[in-house]
Amino acid sequence: MRLLPPVFALTVAALVVSGCAGGPGIECQGTDWYQLGQNHGILDARGEAERIAATCGNAFDRARYQEGFQEGLSRRARPMV
């Protein structure tokens, strides 16, 4: 039996951890915005911040989310050239 490629496994794990943020069930209160941003950065899920802001309004800590997003982007696997 083949194991999942590490990038695919990481992507699936990040989606599970993030709870598909921005969807109808997003928890606006008590969310770790840094961690969520980091997960989205790893997935390179641009545009999620706008969806979350529209859903959560003032409860969304955009600055903290962006810090996490940038950290996630820096940790994102790069394709080999």
Report what the structure shows.
This protein is an all-alpha fold and 81 residues long. The chain is 58% helix and 0% strand. It is built from 4 helices and no strands. The chain is elongated. It starts with 5 loop residues before the first helix and ends in a 6-residue tail after the last helix. About 10% of the residues have low confidence.
Keywords for this entry:
81 residues, mainly alpha, elongated
Intertermini distance: 28 Å
Most strands sheet: none
The total of beta strands comes to 0
Low-confidence stretches: 15-22
Helix/strand order, N-terminal first? HHHH
So how many helices? 4
| Radius of gyration based on Cα positions | 13 Å
Q: How would you classify the helix and strand content by structural class?
A: mainly alpha
Indicate the percent of residues in helices.
Answer: 55-70%
Shape type: elongated
Kindly report the average pLDDT value. Answer: 80
Provide the β-strand percentage band.
under 5%
Summarize the structure.
Helix content is 58%, strand content 0%. The protein has 81 residues and is an all-alpha fold.
Give the helix/strand layout.
Elements: H1 6-18, H2 33-43, H3 48-56, H4 62-75
Helix pairs in contact: 1-2, 2-4
